[in-house]
Design the sequence.
């Protein structure tokens, strides 16, 4: 497993994002709500701060993903999942939470609201062509393999 150093500033009073287990891919991230809890009614969304600022190495992104337990138990998700934080962004990491459940959900200061995965990426160089290589699948899309 590759280890990557990432510079981080934590302006909240909460612990830094951390892995729940040794082989976990995502680190839990906490809400930073110095002005108090935020209530999300069903289908309502809100931008929730984390108090975290980071400097990713060139060629890396930070993906923000929902927490599966909150999604299952409360219908809490992220509008633009996965959210991407680019390596050249220096502002506060904020999360667009949405309540897809049927009950109000209260987001409290310090609550674990999402997970963060640091990923390496590639830039593409386009090669315009007149035709693509043939495959067995060709242009068969959604549902082409059936349901069994």
Sequence:
């Amino acid at each position: 497993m590759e280890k990557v150093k990432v510079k981080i500033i934590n302006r909240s009073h909460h612990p830094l994002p951390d892995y729940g287990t040794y082989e976990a891919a995502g680190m839990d991230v906490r809400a930073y709500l110095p002005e108090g809890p935020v209530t999300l009614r069903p289908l309502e969304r809100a931008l929730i701060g984390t108090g975290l600022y980071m400097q990713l190495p060139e060629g890396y992104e930070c993906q923000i993903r929902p927490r599966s337990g909150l999604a299952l138990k409360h219908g809490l998700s992220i509008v633009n999942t996965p959210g991407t934080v680019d390596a050249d962004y220096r502002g506060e990491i904020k999360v667009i939470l949405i309540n897809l459940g049927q009950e109000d959900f209260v987001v409290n200061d310090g609550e674990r609201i999402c997970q963060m995965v640091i990923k390496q990426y590639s830039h593409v160089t386009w090669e315009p062509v007149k035709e693509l290589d043939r495959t067995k699948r060709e242009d068969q899309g959604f549902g082409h393999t059936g349901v069994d």
Summary: Residues 68-74 form the longest helix (7 residues). The chain has a mean pLDDT of 94. The longest strand covers residues 112-120.
